[in-house]
Write a structure and sequence with these properties.
single chain; alpha/beta; 2 domains; three-stranded parallel beta sheet
Length: 169
């Protein structure tokens, strides 16, 4: 007589949180200020303002944008702010920095607004593998949000987890 194989993971009350499920669609791009500088280093205000005025900002519609300067030029704060006044109405998100910082900020926003009420007093698994580039800081931010409410937190896959936290009784 054969014993029936039972999937105990699906019958458990474990909840798997896959950050990839929250990954927002939209292209991530870098807007490089150095392209508008004389020789890549010198910001001339009149020329810069003219470029801002005449640029097609609609090309950034529904994109996530990191404003950066890829040279060692010293950029005054107002230049970033001026560009932000044009990008803000058309983009999903703007940061000053690189694509890694952009992704980090996107996930901080997502996790900060995450409704965690379904995770109260539950055993949780933060899924480890994903097809998209989820920043490690997203998992850290998620831990900060879940620690006060979760019964326990593990990392990995349901079949192979690494215990991270267990609430004391």
């Amino acid at each position: 007589m054969k014993e029936k194989i039972v999937n105990r993971v699906t019958k458990s009350n474990l909840i798997t949180i896959d950050l990839e499920d929250f990954y927002p669609l939209g292209e991530r791009v870098v807007f490089d200020i150095s392209n508008w500088l004389e020789q890549g280093f010198i910001l001339k205000e009149m020329n810069f303002r003219e470029k801002v005025l005449n640029h097609d900002w609609n090309q950034y519609s529904d994109k996530f944008v990191a404003i950066a300067c890829t040279t060692d030029a010293i950029i005054p704060s107002w230049a970033y702010l001026l560009i932000a006044t044009k990008l803000s109405p058309v983009t999903k998100k703007i940061v000053v920095g690189n694509l890694e910082l952009l992704e980090t900020v996107i996930f901080q926003d997502i996790i900060s607004s995450l409704d965690t009420s379904i995770y109260i007093d539950k055993p949780l698994i933060i899924k480890g593998c994903s097809n998209k580039a989820i920043p490690v800081t997203a998992s850290v931010h998620l831990i900060e949000k879940l620690l006060p409410i979760a019964k326990n937190i593990m990392f990995g896959e349901a079949c192979s987890t690494v215990p991270l936290y267990k609430r004391k009784k």
